[in-house]
Amino acid sequence: MDSSLTLYTGAKLPSVGFGFWKVDKPQAAEVCRTAIECGYRHLDCACDYGNEVEVGHGIAESIQSGMVRRDDLWVTSKLWNTYHAAEHVQPACERTLKDLGLDYLDLYLIHFPIAQKFVPFEHRYPPGWFFDPAATPPKMEEVRVPIQETWRAMEKLVEKGLVKHIGICNFGTSLLRDLLSYAQIRPSVLQVESHPFLVQSKLLRYCQQEQIAYTAFSPLGPASYYSLGMASQSESLMDNPVVQCIGLEKGKSAAQVLLRWGVQRGTAVIPKTTTPERMKENLNIFDFELSDADMESISSLDRGRRFNDPGVFCEAVFNTFCPIYE
How far is the CA of 115 from the CAs of 110, 153, 170, 218, 286, in angstroms? Predict the structure, then answer.
């Protein structure tokens, strides 16, 4: 199996990327360097992760040492919710480029189909979800910015050479269909939560029909959400008997089985770990295949379980009811 997805432009997106969500700032530069050393060429970043400066240091050191060239890397970042108005899109992208120390991004994604009130860079960056964290109680402040307005500004980033590809995160088929009705530059990639508890087979099939590459975040399931109180240990996919059993048969870890399932169904996956051994293990999934029966057994674990749901966490954590998938 090819270790990359071919986009409609002909560009190749590496099938296994490295996700920087929840990588602590003090570790991020070293984690980035180590990931590149282990063989990762697809780096998934975002303004909201709060570590782009440090990731940028890791990229710069890797290039300066001769480990990679800039064009060996696929670097993704994301437009935060507070920058959806047309006049804020380019400044937000330029801030990300400055932080990462790059001249261009390979991919820039709209992070959520949620537009929030603008927070000036000098006031707070990254701005997070609250408009005013000191308010009593603090809340999110939504604004009415059409996705079409944001998308037009994203297209201009491509025209200006700041970004090679544009795409979206956390969109469903209705929003995608609407976006395709006016997009002058089609979305190259959709990034969504996807794992065997949230298979999203119709969404994947629609993306494949429309030649939109599909990247799965949280491909190993709930582990990143335990510390946030958004999942319980009893929901572990790594400990799931079906996954464990297939891993034993193949001589592979549960994580490798889960990632192989993701790439074998035609998606890119962006696991995260700070351990070099695990980094290497997560990349080492192209020397075995899952049978049709294995794929079906894993897919049948689907229970529509979404761990990263603004309709749940925004109310619980940010005092604002903000559903997007319903």
Answer: 10, 14, 13, 23, 39
Residue 1 has pLDDT above 80, yes or no: no
Q: Identify whether 83 is a catalytic site residue.
A: no
Cα 231 to Cα 238: distance, rounded to the nearest angstrom: 14
Q: Which of 49, 83, 108, 214 is catalytic?
A: 49
The boundaries of the domain holding residue 108 are 4-220+268-288+306-318
Beta strands in the chain (DSSP E): 4-6, 12-14, 18-19, 42-44, 74-79, 105-110, 163-169, 189-193, 213-217, 268-269
Give the domain CATH number at 129: 3.20.20.100
What's the pLDDT tens digit per position in 116-165?
Answer: 999 999 999 999 999 999 999 999 999 999 999 999 999 999 999 999 99
SS3 track for 230-278? CCCHHHCCCCCHHHHHHHHHHCCCHHHHHHHHHHHCCCEECCCCCCHHH
Please give the Cα distance from 312 to 289 (Å, whole number): 36
Four-residue CA torsion sign, 241, 243, 246, 248: negative
Give the number of other Cβ atoms within 10 Å of residue 291's Cβ. 11
User: Is residue 14 in a domain?
Assistant: yes
Structure confidence at residue 312 (pLDDT)? 96
Q: Is 169 among the domain residues? A: yes
Whole-angstrom distance, CA of residue 307 vs CA of residue 313: 9
Domain assignment present for 229: no
User: Is the residue at 255 inside a domain?
Assistant: no
Please tell me the total count of domains within the chain: 1
Q: Does this model's pTM top 0.90? A: yes
